[in-house]
# Entry
Amino acid sequence: MTKYDPKGIEVKWRKIWEEKRLDVADIAGAKKPFYNLMMYPYPSAEGLHVGNMYAFTAADIYGRFKRLCGFEVFEPIGLDGFGIHSENYALKIGRHPQEHAATTERNFYQQLHKIGAMFDWTRTVETYDPDYYRWTQWLFVKMFKAGLAYRAKAEVNWCPKCKTVLSDEQVIDNQCERCGTAVEKREMEQWFFRITDYAERLLNNLSKLDWSEKIKVAQRNWIGKKEGARIEFQIVAGPAARQPHRGLDTARPDRAPRLASPAFIEVFTTRPDTVLGATFIVLAPDHQLTSEIAKENKVVLDYLKQVKEHKALPGEAQKKKTGVATGVRVVNPLNGKELPVWISDYVLAEAGTGAVMGVPAHDERDYEFARKFELPIVRVVEGGPLPYEGAGIMVDSGKYNGMESQKAAEAILNELREKNLGKKAVTYHLRDWLISRQRYWGPPIPMVNCPKCGWVSVPEEQLPVKLPYIEDYQPEGNGKGPLAKHPEFYKTICPNCGAPAERETDVSDTFLDSSWYELKYPSVGAELSRKGQEKLPWNTGLTKRWLPVDMYTGGAEHAVLHLMYFRFVTMVLHDLGYLDFEEPTKKFFAHGLLIKDGAKMSKSRGNVVNPDEYIERYGADALRLYLMFMGPVESGGDFRDTGMEGMRRWVERMWRVITDQAAAPAVEADPEVDRELNKLILKTGENLETRRYNLVIANLMEFINLVAGKQASQKSVLTREQVGKFVIVLSPLAPYIAEELWTENLENQFSVHQQSWPESDRQKTAPSEAIIAIQVDGKLRGTLEFPLAEAEKERNEAFLREKALELPTVVRAMNGKRIVKTVYISGKILNIVTVS
# Structure
């Protein structure tokens, strides 16, 4: 037996694998291609952490298994190195982002080489490489020419710490998803992509995707489709009744603002059947009408200031309702009753029209608001206690009384349509993708602003617009990026008319960089195709061969960030005629989150795990096995040093057992071991396909226990062929150990990773005994076990009944009762039915 030396084994095989190009895919000639992609990694500030390795290992095991199953697997890697994540760290340590990127790339790739993944290192892609971001800019130009990129002034999310705007998807609980700082609202002119044009398609396609269900649910909720009606409430001119001032939440102004007449407030509702139950209207604080009201109403102005200062979150607003009456009144379009208009932060401008009709009897939030501010509550649908949100029978609704609410909704909508005050409508929570960033480290947006021609795209033959090296790259928070301080960059001429013009000085969102990278990997180093006279970012033939991605693995936290944009961009490229598929990946698997000693890993807690030290102490294989053994990979796990020690001990024991068996293999197979090995092969194949890696490792441990137990009395337990099968089964999870055992100890031809998955003899995996459950009056009282040789006899009901009545537990349960009949489910259950 040779001593297990992980460092020596791993360094040796890593070098041999790279020399022999073991993991370099035959991109051009693959007959059975399988594209195994893991989510594009941000190059973490301090380098690779164990959470990265957790995700990469989960993906790599699947790719290695598919290769053993006969597929030619392509498993690429690269760095999503542009963007705020890398730039913030560069700012923190005082290193220029370009210099930091070079250092990070070197360190990150050096670490990635050690983890035992079958990366194809000949086709890396880094987003900050001008040869790559040239095509990111090309994509922006295509969006602009297709009318899908536009510039508009809008109220946007602003992170005061990162000093840039954020998309809605990058704001979580009103905080910057990167730094956790509370987000402010600012009105700025920005670039947007019309992802809302694809909302319905993004939603409908989800049912066709073989993706993790939690991701599909998250996307459905973020798209947020609601079907209902838009209804107009006419504003009534004139002052409202004077009310005493009772503080911020209950303040009522003493007069209505002067508004242009006639004017309307448009609301969206999913329940047009409840219009007659509306007792007030509520506007979002940032509704376009509120600023007009605030100009002539100091109480409203003060309320809006306090909402902005307190940055009230939607969740907090639901718990504690705030609001102010405006003095404005509107008319219910069905019954002519006047309703007061309020402003409250429980209504969001981006939801529907930013205005809702308050129907407190049939909406929980409206009910809480009405109770707090003593507003009327009118039931119009019978069916349950208030607030009742279900369907029912109409009441207190005039001519609609007695109708089912669903039918009443249609009838009410018809009436509103005839009055030209309402119509069917669909709304989405999804908003257009805000693409501009007022930072330095990103691809410059390839647009030119001409005083005569307006905004013009940079000609494709002039791409890339290179990001210049500047010393003053720090963001200033004035609404402009650092490039705006450099006329040598932004002063140019208009591509259309030749007049003096200015380049856009914002850079694009890092999520644009990663929205198309899967298309680039197979074409790295290959001749790019052309469409007419236009050069493309990829080789068309290779793209058709390898795309869409067969299996994509990544974190669930990107369900409405990267994954939504990933799908949108693919759909756009399909519609523009560049791709013959509209979804980027056939399957997506979401892995869980890794924590450390019960807490989320973070630098502030000091519990971020660097895998290098564990690889140094225990070996990459032991770390891979431990990471996958912590629990179901889709659920994540809790990294503990005690568990890592335990896994190392098991690896060393497994090494001793298998090297002993390889050194002195058995002449004949032990029947029990042979049966369990066939079971192991069968179960492992099933569990690898479904990503149940923790069960795979548990089964490997059980098998080693069996062999070790038998080895104590008979040294040779496994034949040479059986040892080889075990090593192949082990290889996706522990590739270094498997290669050493296969090539050195068993002296087989290199490499174990080029073998075929062993077949399982299903006859040997069948149970050796038949087990029949015995019940008395439906309650389990015992079991009968029979060797398979007696299978025919055990199927005889009379024989089973005779044997069952000999069981002491059955005798006690009978207790002198008379048997009425027996019910036999062949091969499973015999139930004895009795009467006293």
Notes: The CA atoms of residues 71 and 603 lie 40 Å apart. The two ends are 68 Å apart (CA to CA).
